[in-house]
Each structure stands twice: as structure tokens, then as C-alpha cells.
Design brief:
The protein is built from seven helices and ten strands. With 257 residues, the protein is an alpha/beta fold. A six-stranded mixed beta sheet has the order 6-7-8-3-9-10, sandwiched between helices. Helix 5 links the parallel strand 7 and strand 8. The structure holds adenosine-5'-triphosphate. InterPro entries: AAA+_ATPase, ABC_transporter-like_ATP-bd, ABC_transporter-like_CS, ABC_transporter_ATP-bind, P-loop_NTPase.
């Protein structure tokens, strides 16, 4: 469904991404993990159509991505909610561009706030919501206009550990219910293993796909304390090994800069 072919992105004479190849199947949950500055956000911006590659191709259903579109929903680390609108108003905002009539917009917005567990919080403004709740609103807003793909750039990074874990479970539940294709960025190894069907480990400067690892942990919600299991530990170690050298290399490059 999504295909990246030799995607390179230069900023002046600095190469942020160098020949990235990646395939994402319809309905797949792919996590990109890599050291700080390896180009994860750059890659997501390219997928969102916010920037264009210096060379190479990004294809969605075989067609080049040439700008932002309602087929892709983006969730950033910082909630990007409109402070003067209520939770309901923020979710409705995402629907305004789609031409859905107002009555239907309200009903849809309610439905998606319910899906992310915010039933009863429709009339609160962002400043009256916790960080986790704001991020739920952002997720509801992105889901409401029914994009095929959800692009998520470290959406839970600013949250405390407990809220992060519960939102990870919510996201898995939503993914199972809606069958969306998800590309999720993180630098957390545990988060990558817990969420991803496939984890793509990126190299540091320039960013390339070092390895893709298929994670086979079955249905997460059926296993109690999955993170403590042997298989989970094995995957975590595998990703850690792949990342370890890259993080060390990134730090050396940082010092030399
Ligand atoms: N507009 C820009 N102009 C110049 N350099 C840029 C620009 N955007 C990103 N970069 C550089 O490209 C590299 C990749 O940045 P990017 O934000 O994609 O990394 P990242 O992997 O998302 O980092 P982090 O995990 O710290 O968020 C960095 O070295 C950054 O300084």
C-alpha cells in the first residue's frame, strides 16, 4: 500500500535520509525506531506530504505522494489542538474539510470521542484536559475523517509511563477495530516491540533502514503483563542490539559536529 523507493532528503549539503526503502501493507502496524536525529520525523513529514524528497519515490497505492491529503491522518507529539474549541469542536474541525454536513459531523465527533474513551468530556476545552486526554482528542480527530493511514510521530512521548501504556493498549484496540494502516515513530524500544507488527530500525546520519524485524507476539490484549514475557525480552534485546551501535555512532557524530 505504501512504498518507499530510494528516498533521499537533503537539507542543503546535509543528507538527513539516504536511500530509504520500505514497504507497508494495507492494515499493517509499522513502527520506525531510531536514534535521535536519524530522520524519523523527516520521513513522516514526507509520508504526510508536507515536504518532498530530494530523490526517490514515495508511493501510496502506486501513486506518488504529492501533498497532504485526507487519506492520511497525522498525530504529532504535541497535541496541536485548537485551544478555543472544545474536545467535540476539535474533532469536528477535522471533519470540516471533508464536506460532511454539520449534524452528521457532531454525531461522528461524538462517536470517535467515545471510541477513544472520552465519553462525557465533549464540552471540555484542551486546558481542562490532561495530557493523555488531549492526545486522545488528537487521535479521535485524525480517525474521524476516516483516513486509510494514520501517521504518528512520537504521539505518547510527552506522557507519563502509566498513561503511555494505557494509550498504547487503546491504540492497539482501535487498530484492531478499524483496520487502519499505521506508521508510528518512536525512540522507545519497548513501545516499538509492544505496538509493531513490523519494527524498522533506522541508522543514524544519514537515516537508512538498517533492518526490519517482524514481531510475532500474538494478540497483545490476551496476555497478562506481556512486557515481562520471555519472547518480549528476546525482541527487545534484538532491537536493542540493532540500535545500540547506531546510538553510539550518533553520539560520536554529535560531538564531532
Ligand atoms: N528543515 C530542516 N533544515 C535543516 N536540517 C533539518 C531540517 N529538518 C531536519 N533537519 C535535520 O535532519 C536531521 C533529521 O531530523 P529529524 O527531525 O527527522 O530527526 P528525528 O529522528 O525525528 O529526531 P528526534 O528523534 O530527535 O525527534 C537532523 O539532524 C536535523 O537537524
Amino acid at each position: 500500500m505504501i512504498s518507499l523507493r530510494g528516498v533521499t532528503k537533503d537539507f542543503g549539503d546535509f543528507t538527513a535520509l539516504d536511500g530509504v526503502d520500505l514497504d507497508v501493507a494495507a492494515g499493517e502496524f509499522v513502527v520506525l525506531v531510531g536514534p535521535s536525529g536519524c530522520g524519523k520525523s523527516t520521513l513522516l513529514d514526507l509520508l504526510a506530504g508536507l515536504t518532498t524528497p530530494t530523490s526517490g519515490q514515495l508511493l501510496l497505492h502506486g501513486k506518488p505522494i504529492d501533498g497532504p491529503g485526507l487519506d492520511r491522518g497525522v498525530v504529532f507529539q504535541q497535541y496541536a489542538l485548537l485551544p478555543w474549541r472544545t474536545a467535540l469542536g476539535n474533532v469536528e474541525f477535522g471533519l470540516e474539510a471533508t464536506g460532511v454536513p454539520r449534524r452528521q459531523r457532531v454525531a461522528l465527533a461524538r462517536e470517535f470521542l467515545d471510541l477513544v474513551g472520552l465519553n462525557g468530556f465533549e464540552d471540555r476545552h484542551p486546558h481542562e484536559l490532561s495530557g493523555g486526554m488531549r492526545q486522545r482528542v488528537a487521535i479521535a480527530r485524525s480517525l474521524a475523517y476516516d483516513p486509510e493511514v494514520l501517521l504518528m510521530d512520537e504521539p505518547f512521548a510527552a506522557l507519563d509511563a502509566q498513561t503511555r501504556e494505557s494509550l498504547q493498549d487503546e491504540l492497539l484496540r482501535i487498530w484492531q477495530r478499524t483496520g487502519k494502516t499505521i506508521v508510528f515513530i518512536t525512540h522507545g524500544i519497548d513501545e516499538a516491540v509492544y505496538l509493531g507488527q513490523t519494527v524498522a530500525v533506522l541508522t543514524s546520519r544519514p537515516g537508512r533502514v538498517k533492518r526490519t524485524v517482524r514481531i510475532d507476539l500474538g494478540n497483545r490484549s490476551e496476555v497478562r503483563d506481556l512486557r515481562s514475557s520471555t519472547e518480549f525480552g528476546r525482541y527487545r534485546h534484538e532491537i536493542w542490539e540493532l540500535l545500540h551501535d547506531e546510538v553510539a555512532r550518533a553520539q560520536r557524530l554529535e560531538v564531532a559536529r
